[in-house]
Amino acid sequence: METSLVSPLQFCLKQILPFAFSFLDDALLLLLPRLGLHVDGLHWLSPVLFSGTLLYWLGQFCYCHYRTSLVH
């Protein structure tokens, strides 16, 4: 059985990335209008990032399930 070690930094970045995008989305939605920058298309950013996060987690789950099925 072959095991590959992923560096702790790479693992942390992979786990934090969806939350970072979600935080960025919230920051843009709250801060830009307060700064006087009104972007018309910004309201669709939140559902797009949420959908992307769900797809990312679904892909990670399927990949993990696929790898474990290969081992057994």
Description:
- With 72 residues, the protein is mainly α.
- It has one domain (12-71).
- 75% of the residues lie in helices and 0% in strands.
- It contains 2 helices and no strands.
- Helix 1 (8-34) runs antiparallel to helix 2.
- The radius of gyration is 17 Å and the shape is elongated.
- The termini are close together.
- The model has no long low-confidence stretch (mean pLDDT 77).
Summarize the structure.
With 72 residues, the chain is mostly helical. The chain is 75% helix and 0% strand. It has one domain.
Return the string of H and E elements: HH
Contiguous uncertain segments of 5+ residues = none
β-strand percent reads: under 5%
Main sheet overview: none
Measured as a percent range, the helix fraction is over 70%
Structural class: mainly alpha
How far apart lie the N and C ends?
Answer: 11 Å
Round the mean pLDDT to the nearest integer and report it.
77
Q: Given the C-alpha coordinates, what overall shape results?
A: elongated
Summed up, the helix count is 2
- Tell me the Rg in angstroms: 17 Å
| Strand element count | 0
Provide the number of structural domains: 1
Topology:
Blueprint: H1 8-34, H2 45-71
List keywords for this structure.
72 residues, 2 helices, elongated
